[in-house]
Amino acid sequence: MSDDAVDTGRRRVLTVATSVVGAIGAGFVAVPFLSAMQPSARTRAAGAPVEIDISKLEDGQLIRVEWRGKPVWILRRSQQALADLPTLDGSLSDPESIESLQPEGATNLLRSIKPDIFVALGVCTHLGCSPTYRPEVAPADLGSKWKGGFFCACHGSRFDLAGRVYKGVPAPTNLQIPPHRYVGDHRIIVGEESNKEIG
Fold this sequence. Notes:
CATH superfamily of the largest domain: Rieske [2Fe-2S] iron-sulphur domain
Radius of gyration: 28 Å
CATH architecture of the largest domain: 3-layer Sandwich
Number of helices: 3
Strand content: 15-25%
């Protein structure tokens, strides 16, 4: 009788041990299949919104991130840069951005949700080159009227610090403003739109 009790106990231990090992093995087999069903990091990055911390962004500083395979610029404009923007209207093709793409919250003279923060796709509207950020005022190669902006070396298009295109250059429209919104004062999500203009 005691031999039967030992056999039953041993059987239970072996059954439990086998079940545990089997469950662990099934988990190891299932994980690669389940993870293969998830979109890759590359796929998620291709269209997923991008969150950016701008808490350390200083006046005149530009940071670049990638969204949908394109460069996105985030620039903190100084008070002087903001004051200079209206003085350029006569030199621009579309100073009020009537012909340009920007989300509703950035449909204003500064083309931004918050006046000092400018967010734009870093892609020239002519043939898709990426212009260079040229913050200096009146450099020899851009002339005495240059008050900072973006210069496309591919074909000579020029844009001011609101991404507005100058007259007489190949680019037909202002730089595109991607959909974006603020999460608190120091974080931006590019790829989602909801904020309205903030004075």
